[in-house]
Amino acid sequence: MTKVPAKQLARKDLLCTKAFIGGEWVSASKTFDVKNPATGELLSTLPDCGSAETEAAIAAAVAPQKLWAKKTAKERSAVLKKWVALIDKHKDDLALILTWENGKPIAESLGEIASGMGYIEWFAEEAKRAYGDVIHGHLPDKRLMVILQPVGITAAITPWNFPHSMISRKAGPALAAGCAQIVKPPAQTPLSALAMAKLAEEAGLPKGLFSIVTSSRARDVGTVLTTDPRVAKFSFTGSTEVGKLLMAQCAGTVKKISLELGGNAPFLVFDDADLDAAVTGAMASKFRNAGQTCVCANRFIVQRSVAKQFAEKLKSAMEKMVVGNGADDGVTTGPLIDAPSVEKVEALVKDATAKGAKVALGGNKHKLGGFYFEPTLLTNMTPDMLIATNEIFGPVAAIFEFDKDEEAIAMANSTRYGLASYFYARDLSRVFNVAESIESGMVGVNTGMLTTEVAPFGGVKESGLGREGGWQGLREYVEEKYICLSI
Ligand code: NAP
């Protein structure tokens, strides 16, 4: 049963009630509910798929994938571009569904959908440029070449914080390269995935190539996706803990894997920085999705001589944040995804204050109740506090201080994560020294926003393996085959 929330969709059928397996909309004997984190309202009741449905999705992909792989890149690209056009046409409905299930403001949902379309369109084009190599022969009679071929059937498990774009980044390159993909979306936000599948079907994507296995039993579905020998490639975005587990499960069949895992982004501000620009970047990096992104600034590391000024400016900017239901006009910050997330953020703030941090703003659950937390600014942070080593995943900005550049770099690198990092400075030699010394897959210099489909997104250390976006993103879904020809 679907209870349609207050604002209506132009296309009500985009709010789905069935899973999409092997090109069919199917039910299951068990179901689970999807609720709006802002209101607790029931959005949809979905099939609670398990291993049988997951195996069915894999079986249904085998034959279509082989045919899809034989099409020209241009033919595949044409279908993907139709999909993008339909997503664009229905973006207002998709944004509303995304906001209902995730809580982020509508403007952010529209931004996420634009980003998702960008990835699919990029890979639709990139597939045409999947060049191999021709190599000088090692003997006079040898001619050598390398061709790129789709890996085959791929599987993806995605998180709730970007219900749309985390799928576009995986399905886009997979389908463009000639693969099939079976997606297990998160139980809290599966509706964006289903709406995408509905539009993919309308775009003419052949049956069986793209399945969405809805489930509240992630372990059951995940076990099949990571152990079935028919799945050649597994791509995961989520926490480092679950990523490690799934990586181990993939070992049995030696799958090609990509892991986009957790982060603990440092955001450094040096004494020669443009502080107003740094605050603008800090707001963009820290508070998107109420602080629930893997690339959110987790630790502000600010040179002591400008720390007070930076904190004051950041506080003024934070005071303008409007907390509320993301579907309401003017709201800049929605709720957190669930009650445990609120408890975790509250515990991190309590730990910091117990160890000497000062609360410059907020610090508590929001008076709106539910899953809302106050935009919070902490100063006097020290490395023994849990925030120094844990992903906050909430609207809390925490300021650490440093004196010398080497100290700032050491602090930035004192984490097991290495996804995004940011810094603000103007001296050219300092800019290069810091950018090259920071241990992370991505560095934003004088910017708080770095995600784009044209560049490789991904982490080092325990933040993951592989890249999404750029020409590199397509390589995750192809094998390089070396052909040695004797003439
Ligand atoms: P999570 O708990 O690891 O869940 C991610 C996905 O894995 C969900 O679909 C979840 O399903 C599934 N899952 C959980 N346990 C599983 C198991 N034992 N077997 C198979 N699947 C399992 O992470 P999250 O809390 O949803 O997402 C937040 C995390 O993702 C943060 O650490 C964030 O930094 C990271 N993230 C990284 C990137 C990146 O690009 N590096 C991007 C976005 C987010 P259910 O939801 O149904 O339980």
Record the strand order, biggest sheet. 14-15-16-13-12-18-19
Distance between the termini: 67 Å
- Number of E-type strands: 22
Measured on Cα atoms, how large is the radius of gyration? Answer: 23 Å
**Global shape:** globular
Largest β sheet strand count, sense and barrel closure: 7 strands, mixed
**Distinct bound molecules:** NADP nicotinamide-adenine-dinucleotide phosphate
Spans of at least 5 consecutive residues whose pLDDT stays below 50 are: none
Q: Into which percent range does the helicity of residues fall?
A: 25-40%
Overall mean pLDDT: 97
Structure commentary:
By secondary structure, the protein is α/β, with parallel strands linked by helices. Helix content is 38%, strand content 22%. The chain contains 14 helices and 22 strands. It has helices at 51-70, 73-89, 91-102, 106-126, 165-177, 191-202, 218-227, 240-251, 275-287, 304-319, 339-354, 405-413, 428-437, 470-475, and strands at residues 19-21, 24-26, 31-35, 42-47, 133-135, 142-150, 153-157, 180-184, 210-212, 231-237, 256-260, 265-269, 297-303, 358-361, 376-379, 396-402, 417-418, 420-424, 442-445, 460-461, 464-465, 478-486. It has a seven-stranded mixed β-sheet with strand order 14-15-16-13-12-18-19, with helices on both faces. Helix 1 (51-70) crosses helix 7 and helix 2 (73-89) packs antiparallel against helix 4. It is globular.
